[in-house]
Amino acid sequence: MPRQQGFTLVELVIVIVLLGIVATISTQFVSLSVRGAIDLGDRQQRALQSVVISEQITREVREAFPLSVRESDGCLEWLPILGATSYQSLPAGAGGNSVTVLPFGQTIDAGARLIVYGYGSSQGSLYESGASVPDPGPVSPEIEQVDSGDTEITFTASKTHRFRERSPQKRIYAVGDAVSVCQKQNNSSTRLYRFSGYTPDTSSPRSFDWLIANAGESGVMSANMVKNSLIWRVTPISLQRSAVVNFEFELFAPGSDETTRVNQEAQIRNVP
Question: Which residues fall within 8 angstroms of residue 124, CB to CB, at 6 or more apart?
Fold first, then answer.
């Protein structure tokens, strides 16, 4: 009778052990590769979002009326410039209700305000609105809509105003409602928020809690969380140089120890 060929029990056990070792190593390799791909994706997402946030803030801040930029308690606030041109004549008497300008070349919606110069005025006076607008002062009451070719700007509701100063270059700016960028100051939600459509305070920027409760429009700027406090540093404008806004923050994803730190500087080139 021929002798049967086969494997012994010891050989089978050795093969099973070796296959187990190979499977364990393969699983660890795949797991580490997947973890590495996820970490790389998180880094790329944070890096891309940091660029988007920095660019969005920088572009908006560069278009701010330079004397209006201010910061407090993690919030940066400014008045955006909607258009700029040169004036030909300003109201001279107590009953003046219009300004003659060169055409803006674009439409300025009703509700904007005009600013001439502004040096020597308190920063809070730039944020005055309604009946509290100083007359004479650097900021006008709200204006009627201005079309691209209009040369005369009229204040709403036949209001009158005199500008306290004159611009050496006869520059006049149309500014819109105040805008704020803030970080929520607690652990439940630490994202960046942008606010507009609210009534500003003349003494200091509105707090985040006030804005989240009262602002007419808000939007989340960051999908990732912001670690630590958002730091704003504002170097005010002078007669010799433009204003500079520096901001710092860190982005992180929940469940990760890695962070992406952002440090950006924006120069406000609009000198009155």
Answer: 202, 203
